[in-house]
Amino acid sequence: MRDVTPLLKWVPENREDDVRKAFDETMSKQGSSQTSQEKAQQKLFTTLVRIHREAEGASFTGVKSAGHIPVIVQEADAALRTNSVDSLVAKVTANIEHAIREKFTKAELSKQQANQSVKQGREYVNDYIHYIHFVEEINEMAEGRAPDTEHQH
């Protein structure tokens, strides 16, 4: 790769210079030892991923190998490659439905025991909170809003 432009779409405009600098360093290592080239390429990729993650508001814990890509991310990428999102939508929808039903059932069962003791009451409150917050967060994401980390009670 001799052009930094394709990389810039992954970072905010105000951080382009950081990526350009790392790219220029990588290009300056062309003709150097294999080890020097690999280190420069790794630095470029690390810089790119770190800046991208920061822009998402996510922490950067290092570059992960391809083997660490979650299956659902691979399937989302495959949907883009094949121009078909149907199986991905079905899978994610089924996963969400299963999780909601599971949390609902747990809260419903613990609700039946909630008044038998303080301990069981607390178990119900815990199950209720997990159920409600999950539904709330899923819905906020579906509506295009970031989940509210400060839940109102």
In short:
With 153 residues, this protein is mainly alpha-helical. The chain is 69% helix and 0% strand.
Characterise the protein shown here.
With 153 residues, the chain is mainly alpha-helical. The chain folds into 2 domains: 5-63, no CATH class; 71-142. It has 6 helices and no strands. It has helices spanning 5-8, 16-28, 34-56, 71-82, 86-113, 118-142. The mean pLDDT is 91.
Identify the notable features of this structure and list them briefly:
DUF6448 family protein, mainly alpha, 6 helices, DUF6448, 153 residues, 2 domains
* Number of helical segments with 4 or more residues: 6
Q: What's the β-strand tally?
A: 0
Give the tally of structural domains.
Answer: 2
Estimate the global geometry from the Cα principal axes. elongated
Helix- and strand-based class? mainly alpha
Pfam families: DUF6448
InterPro entries: DUF6448 (IPR045613)
Protein name: DUF6448 family protein
